[in-house]
Amino acid sequence: MSPTVKEKKKYTYKDYLNTSDDERYELIEGDMLMTPAPSTIHQRISRKIEFMLEKFVTENDLGEVFYAPCDVYLDDDNVVQPDILFISKERSNIIAEKNIQGAPDLVIEIISESTAYRDFVQKKKLYAKFRVKEYWIVIPEEESIEVHVLKDNIYTLHKSYGREETLESFSLKDFRIRLKSIF
Known about the structure:
There is one protein chain. The N and C termini lie far apart (59 Å). The chain has one domain: tt1808, chain A (Alpha-Beta Complex). Helix content is 21%, strand content 34%. Strand 1 and strand 2 form a beta hairpin. It is α+β, with helices and mostly antiparallel strands.
């Protein structure tokens, strides 16, 4: 007699909506993944980037900036909560009352020990699949930020910026961040 293989349950957006309000989850390719609370270093970096991005976007009337927790519904099998995201004014129709209904123009994820694989591999693949134009991966331990740009439905590394450099967004013309001001 051969052993019985139990199939892993695939979750949907409906299941996601029934999760506890006490815990944060993301739904990636039907897998329900708990997201632990971020560290203080993560929060400090996030706050500084959010502030600079929000100021630039508002002053130039470019769209809206959101930050976690904010659900980004990509489809019934994929709902994520990026650390920071930007949606251009031209695509503001994807901003719904309860969540974002589609891929943002820019997503920023800040790596932590518990989310590194998810951010570097799973989400990177997912964001490319749903056509997020620009994806930043912030690496606090290295004091660096990788800027990935979507080309032919895959990400190419535009540039990796170190602490002493000034990051320039690929898609937000004239938006710059001196990295030593956030690390």
